[in-house]
Amino acid sequence: LLGQILDHWFESEPLKATLATDAVIGAMASPRTPGSGYVLLHHVMGELEGRRGAWGYVAGGMGALSQAIAQAATARGAHIFTEKAVCHVLLGRDGEAQGVMLQDGTEVRSKLVLSNASPQITFLELIPQEQLPKDFVQRIRQVDTRSPVTKINVAVDRLPSFLAAPNARDGQPLPHHQCSIHLNCEGTQLLHQAFTEATQGHPSSRPMIELCIPSALDPGLAPAGCHVVSLFTQYTPSTLAGGRSWDEQARNAYADKVFDCIEDYAPGFKASVIGRDVLTPPDLERIFGLPGGNIFHGGMSLDQLYFARPAPCYSGYRSPIPGLYLCGSGAHPGGGVMGAAGRNAAQVAIKDFRHL
């Protein structure tokens, strides 16, 4: 249990709760959930520019990272096609992958196919079920994809000024504006209560909020004097109590609740808002193909990690379909902006390709 680990090392309840957020981020779990300690480990492993456990902003926004990868690939001869939905994987007589069929009818032939889509989309939608082992299909269907995350992107006409650290007169970003700001994290009990409400189908009355202001470090993201604020919030259930879906009213009611909370810490925040984009778990699934809205393509619980990710005996990136590889967050070692699954899958695919 994460709570036991934090209690052993720390006394300050706000510090324990702030550290606990990285143990439940993207997970329908509380600090009291068995195995939650691993998710914290997952978020602090690795390093950035020699600093262990460090995280950073991408200059130009997260899309700039995708562009950098794309440019590196095209410089080495890759051809990239966007807005071209894949209909299904093409299979040969012996059930091996031979390319993909696009929705517009175009066939793209290849000796190998690597899928960065979720295991659910890859194996339940793009492959005929009769071509896969029944126990494998059942395992993929049983993957826990519950997600508590609602992402809110906000445009503001001035920098938030927090009661705990008011802005300078010139309105320029201070050090804390350039960090991850955690709200409603005064104690781990608050996180557990927020989780409990969501398990009963109710959006948290006092949501866990991780607030970032990337434009404080990268001014080009917003017009002069204005800023973009990224809110990573939980807990919100995919389906509301009584089987209700997330309509516009429910979406706005939750966002208003989040903004009311921020207003308590930074008076004037609500008046500074120019626009907002609210993405609930069903929105994240519909727009980005995240199963259940889960940013990791499946829970990072111990029963869905290591040799069991995405299914027992298939953690080595190869799939039951010869020539088809899984290289996204649903593969070992799981989610996060680190590229480990893709790098590992590429090495396995290259090794196999040499023998074709």
From TrEMBL:
Domain of life: Eukaryota
InterPro entries for this protein: Amino_oxidase (IPR002937), FAD/NAD-bd_sf (IPR036188)
Keywords (A to Z) from UniProt: FAD, Flavoprotein
GO cellular component assignments: mitochondrial matrix
MF terms in GO: oxidoreductase activity
SUPFAM superfamilies linked: FAD/NAD(P)-binding domain
Stretches assigned to the Amine oxidase domain: 37-177
Subcellular localization(s) per the UniProt record: Mitochondrion matrix
Quaternary structure and interacting proteins, as annotated: Interacts with COX5B; this interaction may contribute to localize PYROXD2 to the inner face of the inner mitochondrial membrane.
Family the UniProt entry places it in: Belongs to the carotenoid/retinoid oxidoreductase family.
UniProt xrefs under PANTHER family: PHYTOENE DEHYDROGENASE, PYRIDINE NUCLEOTIDE-DISULFIDE OXIDOREDUCTASE DOMAIN-CONTAINING PROTEIN 2
Job description of the protein: Probable oxidoreductase that may play a role as regulator of mitochondrial function.
Name the UniProt record assigns to this protein: Pyridine nucleotide-disulfide oxidoreductase domain-containing protein 2
